Amino acid sequence: MAPKIQWPLVLFSMLVGCGGCCFAFAGLANMLGEAVDVTFIATAVSFVFVIVGSICSVLHLATPRHAFAAVTHILSFSGISVEFIMLGVVSIFIVAYGACCLWFDVVEIRLVLGLLGAVAGIVLAFVTGHGYLISSKPTWNTKKLPLAYTGTALVAGGFLYALVSAIAGGICAQELPMKATLIVCALFSVATLAAYVGHLGKKKANTNANLFHVGIVACGYIATPVCAVVLAFCPSGVAFGVVAAFGLAASLAGGLSLRMLMWLVGAGYLFFFEEARANRSAILNCGPTQSLSGSTE
Questions:
Q1: Mean pLDDT lowest for which of 191-200, 250-259, 278-287?
Q2: How many alpha carbons lie under 13 Å from residue 52 in its C-beta half-sphere?
Q3: 170 vs 42, 166, 177, 227, CA distance in Å?
Q4: Which one of 38, 73, 168, 199 has the fewest CB atoms closer than 10 angstroms to its CB?
Q5: Cβ atoms of residues 26 and 39 within 8 Å
Q6: Where are the beta strands (DSSP E) in 26-175?
Q7: Is 296 helix (H, G, I), strand (E, B) or coil?
Q8: pLDDT in tens, 274-295
Q9: According to the model, what pLDDT value does residue 83 have?
């Protein structure tokens, strides 16, 4: 059976990764002195992304019984249980940070929650890819895959924060430290994407030519870092928000393309054995008087 794209898992990893990394940028902005109401709005948007992404994951489990089984075996520390744990950790930090902003704003507590939440958000993006490291699937079994998940989620979360900040009237996203961080994240995304594509090789990467050339090359390799650089020199106001929106769209397209390609090349050893068996049967059916080249003897 040929591999098929598992859309609930594609959307799950992209949305929760983007949401967790947007919260990471909110925590960084909080440390740099951003207004509390701006970081609160960004945190709320992050929470929406995490919740919607989690719903997509539940849809993949198909039945409530499967979802309940996954929760009851959470201490097995399998790939899915680690994802559940990190989803819980990030959600707790997001809710605690939001509550701190609304009701008991203590600067030191808010700073600690923001920084710990930032680390947790990045780890969440990593573990959504790490669970796919399966020895029976050579195209998945490399640390370059979760790193590419992390890179694409980081830059998407950065652009999401920049867009929310522009709409909410924030200033930190338009200052040098945040702009430089976003450029570094964009370059990290390109590097990790290229590393995973290099692991696949040219033939595998071109399994779907349109997906590779448009999604990964045009959006992931080119448009995403270009938007990050343009944003660094963009004045505040409407132009900043427009470029941030384009950057978010490009980074999401690149990240989704990575995840789609991963599923399309996700054949395991058993698939190769079945293919080899079919080829062997075809050869044997050529008959005793026919050579492999098709000529008769």
A1: 278-287
A2: 13
A3: 10, 6, 14, 19
A4: 73
A5: yes
A6: none
A7: strand
A8: 444 444 455 455 544 443 334 4
A9: 84
Q: Which domains does the chain have, with CATH numbers?
A: 7-282 (1.20.1630.10)
Q: Are 165 and 216 a contacting pair, CB within 8 Å? A: no
Asked if 167 and 241 touch (Cβ cutoff 8 Å), the reply is yes
What pTM does this model have? 0.86
Mean residue pLDDT of the chain comes to: 86
Nearest to 145, CA basis, from 216, 187, 194: 194
Residue 132, token pair as written in the block: 């796919």
- Angle, CA 66 vertex, CA 64 and CA 71 arms, to 5°: 95
In the three-class reduction of DSSP (H, G, I as helix; E, B as strand; rest coil), residue 258 is classed as: helix
Determine the Cα–Cα distance for residues 207 and 210; give it in Å rounded to an integer.
9
**Residue type for 107, please?**
V
- Say how far apart CA 127 and CA 207 lie, in whole Å: 25
In a 13 Å sphere around the CA of 58, the CA atoms on its Cβ side amount to 12
